[in-house]
Design goal:
CATH architecture: Beta Barrel
Number of domains: 1
Strand content: 35-45%
Number of helices: 6
Order of helices and strands: HEEHEEEEHEHEHHEEEE
Distance between the termini: 23 Å
CATH class: Mainly Beta
CATH superfamily: Acyl-CoA thioesterase, double hotdog domain
Largest sheet: 12 strands, antiparallel
CATH topology: Porin
Length: 311
């Protein structure tokens, strides 16, 4: 979570945002290519990281790639409804990641898969995912909170351009996801002291995605690791890279409730119920533009605030 988004470097033909950072369809296409794993055996896949990467692999990238690996061993008519994952070791972006899929169960209604991501002979990430064939049943959902429409909010580029140099390092990475902040980001509010443990952003893939249900879910999984722990940091008035905060995602769980398109606007409403023991817990709800609840996320992250006395 603390590392920049894993998107390949871009060429001069890629459109630039108002702050000079690449965005749009070419950058999104590179994310889609990043999620297109190489199949090297029946249950073994290989993925790569961008040529230009941070020190460790972005958590959303490895989660999205692992889900792709799982989904490619499951009949297309069965959609993923939940995943549970652990980040075990930092990923090395200079080395391909091997994804080994264990076909745990193929039942009449549900299919279960376990995926282990391996580098240098050691597991760096594990994921369990469950897929279900379409069934009718009870249907209800909590309502979407009242927020401004995404088009009424500044783009991420407009927001960062207005702040000059007062932006974190990740803001300079290529942007396959269009993000519009509803609440002020914690790297802005940190100078104002602690705030509510909440973070709200509109998101969508910044371009058009193919009509592939699994790909849309994997893009949502990728995006889910981008702003979730910000709700923890906002409560304490600190932020990555700006303050002496060290952090990483520890585990990640998602439940997918209803079909959606990741290239259409969705609201990511995040809150933190607790932080203790150098760990912060954050929950998030994804709402489609029509107000329907499409997914729920829970993540715990390692969050260490380094004081001058402990350096």
């Amino acid at each position: 979570m603390t590392e920049a988004m894993g998107v390949p470097a871009t060429s001069d033909e890629v459109p630039l945002s108002v702050d000079g950072v690449p965005h749009g369809q070419p950058v999104l296409d590179r994310l889609v290519a990043l999620l297109d794993l190489e199949r090297i055996e029946e249950n073994i896949f290989r993925g790569v990281s961008p040529d230009r990467s941070p020190v460790r692999v972005f958590g959303g990238q490895v989660a999205g790639q692992a889900l792709v690996a799982a989904g490619r061993t499951v009949p297309a008519e069965r959609r993923v409804h939940s995943l549970h994952a652990y980040f075990i070791r930092p990923g090395d972006p200079s080395t391909p990641i091997v994804y080994e899929v264990d076909r745990i169960r193929d039942g009449r209604s549900f299919t279960t898969r376990r995926v282990v991501a391996i580098q240098h002979g050691r597991a760096i990430f594990s994921l369990s995912a469950s897929f279900q064939k379409a069934e009718a049943g009870m249907d209800h959902a909590q309502p979407m909170p009242g927020v401004p429409e995404p088009e009424s909010l500044p783009t991420f580029g407009e927001l960062t351009a207005s702040l000059g140099n007062k932006v974190p390092e990740f803001a300079h990475s290529p942007r396959p996801i269009d993000i519009r902040y509803v609440s002020a980001p914690p790297w802005v509010t940190r100078n104002q002291g602690p705030h509510e443990a909440r973070n709200q952003v509109w998101m969508r893939a910044d371009g058009k995605l193919p009509d592939d249900d699994l790909l849309h879910v994997c893009v949502l999984a990728y995006a889910s690791d981008m702003t979730l722990l910000d709700s923890v940091l906002a409560k304490h008035g600190v932020y990555w890279g700006t303050d002496k905060v060290l952090g990483a995602s520890l585990d990640h769980a998602m439940w997918f409730h209803r079909p959606f398109r990741a290239d259409e606007w969705f609201l990511y409403d995040c809150a933190s119920p607790s932080a203790s023991g150098a760990r912060g817990l954050a929950t998030g709800n994804f709402f489609a533009g029509d107000g329907s609840l499409i997914a729920t996320v829970v993540q715990e992250g390692l969050l260490r605030v380094i004081s001058d006395e402990t350096e």
